[in-house]
Amino acid sequence: MSSAEPLVLPAQEASRWPELGVWNFYFLLKFLLLWQGLLNFQVLPNLVFAAVLLVPLQSAWACWLRNLLALPVAVALLYQDTWLPPFSRLLERPEVLQLSGDYLLELAGRTLDWHLLGACLVLLVAYRLLAPWLRLTTLSVAGLLWLAVAQGVPELAPPAAPLQGQASSAGAAPVAQPEGPASSAALNAYLERFYRDEQARRTAFPAEPSAAAPAFDLLVVNICSLAWSDLDATSLRDHPLWRRMDVVFDRFNSATAYSGPAAIRLLRASCGQSAHAGLYETPDNQCLLFDNLARLGFAGSLLLNHDGRFDGFLQEVRNEGRLPAPLVELGQLRHDLVGFDGSPIWRDREVLGRWWQQRQAGGEARVALFYNSITLHDGNRQRLPDGRTRSADYHSRAQVLLDDLNAFVEQLQASGRPVLLALVPEHGASLDGDRMQIAGMREIPTPAITHVPVALKLINMPGIERSEPLHVAEPSSYLALSELVARLYAGTAQGEQGFDWGALLADLPQTPMVSENSGTVVLDYQGATYVRIKERSEWLPYPPNKP
Are residues 407 and 332 part of one domain? Predict the structure, then answer.
């Protein structure tokens, strides 16, 4: 602290307005972070904080006490200005206490940005050099006032070109359309129209089983932490598994960034997309995909490659999907991975292979399986021969998972039994992070997290052999998947000339990109991405991925 900018105002100079002193560095640091796009700067609280620090006091001890009380306020205000989730969100998730110490240390290490630390060091040196010569208080206050004026402009962003592919197709339910330039009022109205339109959308399954319906099994593989951005980061977009799929959804939105809500949305795929709060309300029976299939003669089955205890995931899936308890005993299988909470994670190929053996031995005509894999979950650790664990590399785990699924496809093909295999990731891993979230954080369901590689494979069905996958280019979500299953059961694609892929995929329901976690909504409006955080009701343009 320089003599030119005292932190504490002497009593004999109390009649003069004090300087901010070392608090200038606090505000200049915030300006740096804001310039880097790392803060959602709240001007009014910061102006009030600066004003309190500038009020003249009559005694040195009063100045000392003010600065002491200002320290926790400054920390809380800085936290509020970041994109980190509010503490109330953490208090709502007591399962965080179950995370292992190794995982917590790993998360702490991700918060270190050496480039940013270097910039802060340069700022500190510059502050120490300039403080004796410049009135930095004037600079700090002027910066705050300029930000107050700049943030007073109501327009969020200039209107961009309309997003292509949003128009309703023949046979597809209408979807909400952007109206007018982006503003908080326009975005709120658009979101309300979106959810209102989605409430009326349903998949029309046959009312009763049909003897003429094709007999096939539906195997839904629900994969945690796999998005297109993760495949790009690990150079696995061209893995052979994707090339052997029959249908790939290019713009499928998982609509959430957390496992429980993602599973519920998938289990309720037969209705339009609901708000996050609606996930925990009693659904219409027509919304439940596996319930619809059960009425058509499909025996429901549930399978996990983990114990499902964390956050009550297993019980939640059973309740929301009306599925039976898993019947495959996994305790005797060897596991090389443990979860972030220390629980075992079994290898996908062994778990799926054992279930398929049991299924072939059973006498059910049709089976609908919901399988959940957390092989790629953040914080998983590899077991070592001596009993210790080490961090498990994402790329290696993803390679093994895709190889296992590829081998499982071959196992299904060798069985000769007709199967519809659906790969439906829950959400991405956020491997790279961005300005608003560190790597691995998923509080904000950005497109990089919710844009997931959904793919289908029709196995051992006559006339469906393909050399390369067909691509669904329209914006899609779970309702399109449910519609496709209903069409396959109804025999829509079975024509006189053989299997008609065009009839199977024509006019699938389209769903604009709207994603929601508890307290946070992200949507696409006129080609740009906007975010609304519950504690801050205004909509904000989502910043570019990297500074």
Answer: yes
CA distance 365 to 233: 41
pLDDT one-digit tens code per residue, 76-120: 998 888 877 666 665 555 555 555 556 656 656 666 666 777 877
d(CA 228, CA 452): 5
**CATH code: domain of residue 249:** 3.40.720.10
Half-sphere exposure for 460 (CA within 13 Å, toward CB): 18
**Those residues with Cβ within 8 angstroms of residue 192's Cβ, 6 or more apart along the chain or in another chain:** none
pTM above 0.70, yes or no: yes
26 backbone dihedrals φ, ψ, rounded to 5°:
-60, -50
The secondary structure element, H or E, covering residue 185 is helix 184-199
Give the neighbor-by-neighbor strand order of the sheet with 528-533: 514-517, 520-525, 528-533, 536-541
Cα separation, 401 vs 195, whole angstroms:
35
| DSSP sequence for 207-269 | SS--TTS---EEEEEEESS--HHHHHHTT-TT-HHHHT-SEEETTBB-S-SSHHHHHHHHHTT
Residues 6+ apart with CB under 8 A from 22: 1, 5, 7
How big is the CA angle at 411 (ends 410 and 417), to the nearest 5 degrees? Answer: 105
Helical (H) or strand (E) element with 349: helix 348-361
Non-local CB neighbours of 313 within 8 Å, separated by 6+ positions = 259, 260, 263, 304, 372
Instruction: Decide: 531 and 542 in contact? Cβ < 8 Å.
Output: yes
Distances in whole angstroms, Cα of residue 85 to Cα of each of 326, 370, 437: 35, 31, 10
Q: Residues in the chain with pLDDT < 50?
A: 1-4, 6-15, 153-171, 173-174, 547
Q: Does residue 180 fall inside a structural domain? A: no
**Residue 164 DSSP code:** T
Rounded to whole angstroms, how far apart are CA atoms 297 and 284? 20
Residue corresponding to tokens 């829509």? 492
* Residue with tokens 């989730």, as numbered in its chain: 85
Domain around 37: 11-150
d(Cα 519, Cα 542) in Å, to the nearest integer? 16
On whether residue 445 sits in a domain, the answer given is yes
